[in-house]
Design brief:
Layout lengths: L13 E6 L4 H15 L3 E8 L10 H19 L3 E7 L9 H15 L3 E5 L9 H16 L21 E5 L16 H10 L1 H17 L5 H5 L1
Parallel strand pairs: 1-2, 1-4, 2-3, 4-5
Helix pairs in contact: 1-2, 1-5, 2-5, 3-4
Length: about 230
């Protein structure tokens, strides 16, 4: 996939994924991340929000603790080398200044210097999750802003320098206009295992479907029992 040949020129390639929520990485590209890791790439997973509302019947503090722990479990399954938590309030990024998210993305790009960056597609006009769209927009801008020596000169105090990644990979709920396909046949089971590791958030997803089917007057026994 791409030109992510590990060890090229004696350098281990780094892949960085910006995941708005803990479970997005596993759901949307877990198989690709596992493949990159198996091929020798160093995978860095950045979770932008704290997922504090992504549970059913749990208090916020317990939700935050569980989703963080389950993210580490999923990351270990996929072979992720490092997890970074930015801690923005979940489901509220539309109200967060875009520049604040972009600055953190620029800092991380300069710090980890990835060859490839993955995130949601900023051109997906059908994406109704504002956290997804906001991260996509911020990272797309950070991709080129990180190379400018006059953007965020305060980063120099952290020993960082301007940097430009070579590739950007976008994913979305839609696949009909994809221009790159990654074969994850050998990594599909690990992807599924990683998704299932997000137990707290998966229960929340099941509950959403459960409520939708109830509203339609068509309860599904399997969802009710789950």
């Amino acid at each position: 996939p791409g030109d992510l040949t590990p060890g090229r020129g004696g350098i281990v390639q780094t892949v960085m994924i910006f995941s708005p929520h803990a479970d997005d990485a596993a759901i949307f590209c877990g198989g690709a991340l596992a493949r990159f890791a198996d091929e020798g790439c160093r995978v860095v997973l950045v979770r932008v929000t704290d997922d504090r509302y992504d549970s059913v019947g749990l208090p916020v503090d317990e939700t935050v603790a569980r989703t963080a722990a389950e993210l580490r479990d999923a990351a270990a399954i996929l072979g992720v080398a490092e997890v970074v938590d930015l801690g923005f309030e979940t489901d509220c990024l539309a109200d967060t200044p875009l520049g604040a998210i972009r600055e953190r993305a620029v800092w991380l790009l300069r710090r980890h210097r990835p060859q490839a960056v993955l995130t949601f597609d900023p051109a997906d006009r059908f994406e109704d999750n504002r956290d997804h769209a906001r991260v996509a927009q911020a990272v797309a801008e950070a991709f080129w802003v990180a190379a400018f020596d006059k953007h965020h000169p305060e980063h120099l105090a952290d020993g960082l320098a301007p940097f430009a990644p070579a590739e950007r990979w976008f994913f979305s709920r839609r696949g009909d206009d994809a221009n790159r396909v990654v074969d994850i046949t050998d990594h599909l089971e690990r992807k599924v295992d990683a998704v299932c590791a997000h137990r707290t958030q998966m229960r929340n997803v099941v509950n959403q479907y459960r409520l939708q089917f109830r509203a339609a007057g068509r309860p599904v026994p399997a969802l009710e029992s789950a």
